[in-house]
Amino acid sequence: MKAWLCLLLVLCLWPSAWAANLTASVDKNLIGLNDTFTLRLQYDEIDKSVSPDLSSLQHDFEVLNTQSGSVVSIVNGQSQSYTHWTIDLAPRKIGKLIIPSFNIKGAVSDAIEITVEGKSKRAQADNIQVETLVEKPSLYVQEQLFVTVRLKIDANLSLNGGNMEPLQIKDALVIQLEDKKYRMNENGRLVDIIESRFAVYPQVSGEMIIPAILFQLDVGGNQWDMRSFFGTNRGNLIRLRTEEQRITVTPSPQDPKAQPWLPAQNLQLEEHWSTNPETLKVGDPITRTITIRAQGLSAAQLPPLPTLDIQGLSSYQDQAQTEDQKQDNGVTGSRVETTAIVANRSGSYTLPSIKLHWWDTQEKVFKTAELASTRLNVSSGANNMDAIVDKDSNTHDEYTSVPLNTELNLSANHQTKASLPIWVYVLLAASLLANVCLFWLYRQARLGKNTRSTDQQQDGKEQHSNEKAAWQQVREAIGNKATPEKLREVLLHWGRIFWQDAQLNSLDRLGRQFGSAELIEHLKQLDRCIYSQKHSELDLDALKQLLASLRQATQRKQEQTLKALYPH
Predict the structure, then answer these.
(1) Between the CA of residue 488 and those of 19, 156, 474, 485, what are the distances in Å?
(2) pTM of the model
(3) What 3-state DSSP class applies to 42?
(4) How far apart are CA 443 and CA 465, in angstroms?
(5) Any idea of the CA torsion for 271, 275, 278, 282, to the nearest 10 degrees?
(6) What pLDDT, in 10s, does the model give residues 173-231?
(7) Bridge-partner residues for 202, per DSSP?
(8) Count of beta carbons in the 10 Å neighbourhood of residue 317
(9) 234 in the Ramachandran plot: left (φ > 0), alpha (ψ -120 to 50) or beta?
């Protein structure tokens, strides 16, 4: 029984007795908060399928780099083989930190204590400085603030590579402007400087915190190559942090002029017309371009301009174009709004003035940028329109017929025994002549009436023929998917003939002639395709069906009206 117990104990201890060793070591136990150190793990077997779990390090340390390898060596006839991992670490806080034990296939390493102090233990860190500079300690909400993050290093040190933590500020818009590299003499020693400059726009009032920025630098040698700052080689790694900065952000003034709130160094409004607005014709498009340009504001902060809503004018506005120009003196934002305007009726139109109130951040006063009102003089352009058949008058001359009686009612038994006076014969002759003239005029009036009726029928046939040909052009343009410009041309030509209206020079007027809101919307969409840069698809089939339906209904109504005027 004892023998079996001993055998069982040996079997239980067998794996630990033959398990490979796992050892852990560090290059230093006392470091500064901004210093780095190296952890080395060695496993006394070559096994590429295993690796240590580093997740337990993440709470107190930042894992900067990990390398692994295998070694096989023979010394004095004895062979040695192992797998090793080299891990670069940086502390996250000050105090006594523990590197925990690691376990690989039953092999367990010892835990290691690391002491972290505030001051760096690297001698080279005294020759390297980082700092954050702010333009002013307080400002208005959404006002531009310059923030400069600077690295200074002695010229006799070589900066092989490095990186800077991105600047991220809560409740603020951050725009990076530029990076500068230069050398200067500072207190009798040459210093190389790298600067990153930012424009910061706080979005809420209160205290804005600019956090500490972490630099990780690879320093070595005695000659610095500016071009290698963003290299990848890792040598003597140094970590440095800037100091946190706090800025007071004041709310915008409680003033009607502060809506919208535009704090800038300068703000301007510019206007450009594609043609002279004083010589416009009905149906001709004209393009108005307005640019807002603000120094010290980003394009995202610039407001949209009011839309144009004037009776008799159709407007088609493109999507606004925005741009931020980054210069030494900060950000200059611009917003460009382009609107195509088409006059539907002749006359004079006044476009209202445009005003933007803005806050001058240098002079601390409100100012106003303004575009004066613009007058559009629109002529009918009738001389350029196609000739059409004039409307026939519905009023006809009417002649009253006079009954003609040529018989003389003389009594047969009446005997004249004496001759009548001469004036009696003259009166009878005049009466006969008058009756003859009246009969001739009656016949001429009937003949004239018949002639005019024939002419009207002939004109009606010609008018119908012209309208039918113009309508066929519309059908062909839609069927062949003609360009929007061509489709507009044939629609207006047909509309002038159909409605006998020489002043029908715009699609808007054509839609209103039919009194169809659906047609007006279709024709507006066609105008947008012509005058706006936002080209959208036209539903040509729906437009064709709608026009055909309206044309047929209108023609039936016109025929009923004519029958009522001319019943015979």
Answers:
(1) 89, 75, 9, 5
(2) 0.62
(3) strand
(4) 33
(5) -120
(6) 999 998 999 999 988 889 999 999 999 999 999 999 999 999 988 887 544 443 334 33
(7) 172
(8) 18
(9) beta
